[in-house]
Write a structure and sequence with these properties.
heterodimer; A: 255 residues; alpha+beta; four-stranded antiparallel beta sheet; 5 helices; 31% helix; 41% strand; B: 311 residues; two-stranded antiparallel ribbon; two-stranded antiparallel sheet; 11 helices; 74% helix
Chain lengths: 255, 311
């Protein structure tokens, strides 16, 4: 029994040391750590910088939290018309997934390892659960990726990471991640994966929060917190604005 | 220093270009002012095209129609084109029909394939109304030309005689017609049912009903239709904001600024056109939308997924 406890303790120690080692090879800071969405927000650029071993490559991912997406799958009715047919739910898919790399993924993959593939958009397939009625949903995940890419929330970017000269076996990197305008408030993560010979050898992550501020925050608070009042106010303001514009036209000699 | 042209919409969760939204509002408002339709059947798909979620697009559009139809009703009221008595009776029928229509949709959704039936109703309604209006307007334009040369006595149709024998006849002075209140009420209910099933204000169905079934003059039809749409959209805006949180007021206000100006210009432009010219233009517009919908039904979509709640 005592030997069993000893082996378990040894294994935990080994795991801790190896994790610490993996974190040591990758260091990253992110700027800004909070994205404030004000009235004039139209997307922004997030900067991630840090260091990694000189003979490795960086893959940086901006990830949203996992959500459930309830959708309708389109299909042909009577062999002629395309319609929304079956309900389909995607569970565990991130709201946003922006993958950046300095070199082509194929070049990184060519060295063998499968751990890189899970970092790509197509790699999400393993973590996303699909719930749907009946059969014939084989291409549902690919269609989901297409939809998210069309919205600009899923993207693979090449060349937006640059390196500076190496010293003492380490090189520094700078990633400029374009954040889309279609962004919801919430918690996000910037992940750095250090890749060598087709395998991930180190990892680091930094949290980023997205907040509504100013007028958008006030309006969202009213719309979700006092929805009936919001609806009545929206109607009254629309009525007054319509009347106001009508009167302006009258005063300018509308008849 | 550059002028900020983008604005973030907190309910839609996206930022939009101010000029694009003002332009969209102006264009659709112009059509609304000319033809007396709310424009929901045009605006919602256009907003979706510019990245607004479908549910937010439809609800915010209702909010902007409140303002646009207020402005349009005011313009038509000053021109003497609003029959309040007729509008109110149609509105009562429309509200009753809308309530029935919402229940029908619930049953259809439970049975499945509701979306198919909704889209098919759209294509059929738009196709029938558009084709009939187009053919009739063309015929009346030709007749008007012939009449100049050979004026004759017009024989009353079977429909005209049937309408006259219905009970509870009432005089509608502004429209210059005498019809049964019962008939107006039933037509209001039918349009309300169709509008609720199709998820629109119902202007493009109401206008042909007023012209062909109630025999109202086209200019009064436009003003009265806008008056009725105003109340329908007030109801929709409050319900959508309260129950579904899908009204983006900033988006609605931007569209409203554009569409209110457009509606005023449209009302004046409409006054310069003859009734049959207005009808043939509206018929063409309805047919174009019908063809677009038919194409969407037949062509393979770019992405085979859609969010729940979208069209």
């Amino acid at each position: 029994m005592k030997i069993g406890y000893f082996i378990l303790f040894f294994a935990i120690c080994l795991l801790t040391v190896s994790t610490a080692g993996a974190q040591d090879v990758a260091r990253m800071t992110v700027e800004p750590q909070a994205i404030n969405i004000g009235a004039l927000y139209n997307g922004t650029t997030l900067t991630a910088k840090g260091s990694l071993p000189a003979d490795s490559e960086a893959i940086v991912r901006f990830m949203g939290t996992s959500c459930e997406f309830h959708m309708k799958e389109k299909g042909k009715v009577g062999g002629i018309m395309w319609m929304n047919l079956d309900s389909i739910t995607f569970k565990g898919a991130p709201g946003v997934c922006l993958v950046s790399s300095a070199v082509d993924f194929k070049r990184l993959e060519a060295n063998g390892g499968t751990s890189i593939r899970v970092l790509k958009l197509s790699g999400l397939k393993g973590s996303v659960q699909i719930e749907a009625n009946g059969d014939g949903h084989e291409n549902a995940f690919e269609e989901f990726l297409k939809l998210k890419q069309k919205e600009g929330l899923y993207r693979e970017m090449l060349g937006n990471i640059s390196y500076e000269s190496a010293s003492e076996g380490q090189k520094t990197f700078l990633a400029k991640i374009p954040i889309p305008s279609r962004l919801s408030p919430g918690a996000y993560t910037v992940e750095l994966d250090v890749v060598r010979n087709g395998e991930v050898i180190g990892r680091a992550e930094q949290p980023v929060t997205v907040n509504l501020v100013g007028f958008p925050a006030l309006l969202a608070g009213l719309a979700f917190g006092h929805s009936a009042l919001y609806g009545i106010l929206a109607t009254i303001i629309a009525l007054l604005a319509g009347l106001g514009i009508g009167l302006v036209f009258q005063s300018r000699g509308g008849h | 220093m550059s002028i900020p042209l983008h604005l973030y919409l907190p309910i839609a969760g996206n930022s939009v270009n101010l000029l694009v939204i003002l332009g969209l509002g102006g264009g659709v408002g112009l059509l609304s002012g000319i033809f007396g339709v709310g424009g929901g059947f045009l605006m919602t798909p256009l907003l979706i095209m510019f990245g607004i979620p479908p549910t937010v697009a439809a609800a915010s559009d209702s909010n902007q129609i409140v303002g646009a139809s207020t402005s349009g009703t005011l313009a038509h009221f000053r021109l003497g084109n609003v029959d309040f008595k007729m509008g109110l009776i149609l509105l009562v029928g429309g509200i009753a029909g809308g309530t029935v229509g919402v229940q029908i949709i619930k049953v259809l959704r439970q049975l499945g394939n509701a979306d198919f039936l909704i889209n098919l109703t759209y294509v059929l309604m738009l196709g029938i109304i558009g084709s009939y209006m187009f053919a009739e307007s063309l015929q009346s334009m030709r007749k008007a030309q012939k009449k100049i040369h050979a004026p004759g006595v017009r024989k009353e149709s079977l429909y005209g005689r049937m309408v006259k024998i219905l009970p509870w006849q009432m005089e509608f002075k502004r429209s210059g017609v005498r019809v049964s209140v019962l008939m107006v009420l039933i037509l209001g209910i039918l349009v309300g049912i169709l509008a609720a099933i199709m998820g629109v204000g119902g202007g493009f169905i109401m206008v042909p009903v007023m012209v062909y079934m109630l025999r109202m003059p086209m200019h009064v039809v436009v003003g009265t239709s806008l008056f009725q749409i105003l109340f329908t959209c007030i109801n929709v805006t409050i319900m959508q904001a309260w129950r579904n949180h899908t009204v983006d007021f900033i988006l609605a206000l931007l569209l409203l600024i554009g569409s209110s100006v457009g509606a005023q210009v449209g009302a004046k432009l409409g006054k310069k056109l003859r009734g049959d010219q207005l009808k043939i233009l509206l018929a063409s517009l309805v047919l174009v939308v019908m063809l677009k919908m038919l194409y969407e039904l037949l062509a393979r979509p770019e992405v085979l997924l859609a969010y729940v709640g979208g069209h």
